[in-house]
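# step 3/5: fold
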Amino acid sequence: MRFFLEGVFETSQQAVSTAQRVLALFAEDRARLAPALGRRAGSALRVHECLERRPILAVSDTADELGLSRPTARACIEAMQRMGMAREITGYGTDQIPSICFTFLRPVILRDRK
């Protein structure tokens, strides 16, 4: 029984640590967005928040959800992609398909291993 409880404790500690790193990563990314995007920063921050809630999304769905034009949503996501915050996962490229999917997931855990 003790072995089981120690495993549960260890696993929960790892989950808390990972969640804290993910939240810190979100905060770091938000801090980088505003200075880098100028007047588009407000829209980009809204898209960023959407990506935090739903890490895999389509540009069209994001635009509809946030009330942004599709070109604006796409430009914000592409800017985040250039900054290493998001990546395209459909394999079609941004000009090939209107509902391109992006993911916000990054190797958070590997970042701390050196």
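# step 4/5: annotate
The longest strand covers residues 56-58.
# step 5/5: archive (pending)
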